[in-house]
Description:
Layout: H1 2-6, H2 13-29, E1 33-36, H3 42-47, E2 49-50, E3 70-74, E4 103-107, E5 111-112, E6 118-119, E7 123-124, E8 130-131, E9 135-137, H4 145-160, E10 162-169, E11 180-185, H5 186-197, H6 221-240, E12 273-274, E13 280-281, H7 323-330, H8 336-345, H9 369-374, H10 397-403, H11 409-415, H12 441-458, H13 491-494, E14 503-505, H14 520-546
Parallel strand pairs: 2-4, 9-14
Antiparallel strand pairs: 1-10, 3-4, 5-6, 7-8, 10-11, 12-13
Helix pairs in contact: 5-6, 6-12, 7-11
Amino acid sequence: LFRIWTAGFKTHKMQAILAVLVVASYCMSFGEAQVPRVCSSIEILVSKTCCPTPESNSSYGSCGVNAGRGACTDVSEVCYTGYEEDPTSIETRLNWPTYFFTKICKCNGNYGGFDCSECEFGYTGDDCQTKLPIRTRKSITAKTDEEWSTYNQQLRKVKKALSRYAIVLPTNLSDISTAIIRNISVYDHLVWSHVFAAKTHFDGYYADGSADDYAHESAGFPTWHRLLLLILEREFQIALDDPDFSLSYWDWTNFQGQPDWTSLLFSDDRLGGYNATGYLTGNYYDQENWLTICWPRPENFTNETCDPTDPLGIRAVIRCNNNTACTAEAGLFPTEADAYRALNNYPLWRDNTGAEPYAPFKKFARFSFGNYLEGFSVLPSSGEFNPLNSGLANVSATESVLIGTLLHNIPHVILGLGSIAYPSKVQGTMVSEGASPNDPVFFNHHTMIDCLLDKYLKNTTEGYVGPIGNRLFAGHGPNDCLVPFFPLYTHVDMHKVGSEFGFQCDLRNFTAPNSTAPQPDGAMQQIAQYNVLLAALIVFAFAYILF
Length: 547
């Protein structure tokens, strides 16, 4: 999100040269990953095989093979691994997870987990054939005082509970045996995963609108974040011994544009209050009880390694704490009309220009649900992107109407503008593209995004559409495995209605906007009318020439 605000500014030549040198140095000496803790020993990393025996029953054998649950297999049987490597650098996320492991567990049927000891999302039983009752993701504003107390205590617990995953920090990419292994908490593991996936591609920042990382700005944004939420719910359920734990969504369309920071939602006993400098206050998220990881740090941080134990990166969560300043600098919250337009007027991925084969998957593609959901639309002729709710700089009034506000990005930017101690600066936690999950409201916000995705998927038969084999979009192809998760899932795996994973949302239906302004479907109708008129003129011209 920081890149949105800095796009269009020119970089000094010397800064560019230094950046290239830094990245080149990084490529030769740094890298990282999160892996199952049972596969984090140096011996296993050197073997490049993560096929553990389930701890719950050693008789199952590796990947539960003796019980028919799964088998140790090549990664290429699960994921697309055909991206061409750059001989001058090492990108540890490319062809995930082959830099770290070339053999992993592939589970049969509804068996799941990195060792096939679990069931897939939405299933239970010894044979994983029993469908779980559908869990309902409810509005966060519907929580009672008791439910808020329980929820915040649960967050505090998973912030400290040891994760089943560990962080691998190689000090030399040519020798994995030099890696440093760090334990991490259940909550911070999810933050770290987002940080790692959000690092910019080693190929650099793509001003043409191609994907800049492995989780954002292309076709994989909705499905990548869906898996993050599913893994969160699974890991919380295990850590809390609560199989019914479900996330709640934050429906910011209820603000109708203007938020109310004085509301009960932003109080000490809810999502956290604020002090004069924007730091969170309250019983759960104050500076003593809720320390961030991997933040603050520079964005476009390809050359940065995130050690979750590094005290230099620890800082309290900061949110914008002034109603007027937040919306004045960032724009208004998305409205019910914006949600309705996104759900009712766009195909999943499309660019109406058809100028190049990968245009539909760029973050500025027009008339695309995926881009509308994330918060991008078109690239104006000036090449400068304006993240405000007015849409884009240097576009026509009609295009601005078609673009509307930015469903996912704007709440990030509003909450992340920082405090009055940092006027007009991008300082808040939520505006960090990688480290934003440090703020717990991130997951309520993204549950809302996932609920919108679920509504969309219920009304379309369109399968996952994404670029295949193009390195500029690595990580977003249909069968690319989602970085950096274990067990391995592809975008196609995640492109299903929520009930397939055992959840549903009670998100309300959105009504059509009461506006005479042109809507996307109206624009398409106008374009069709113009095409008919143009065809008629061409026929008339030929007739005039011939006769």
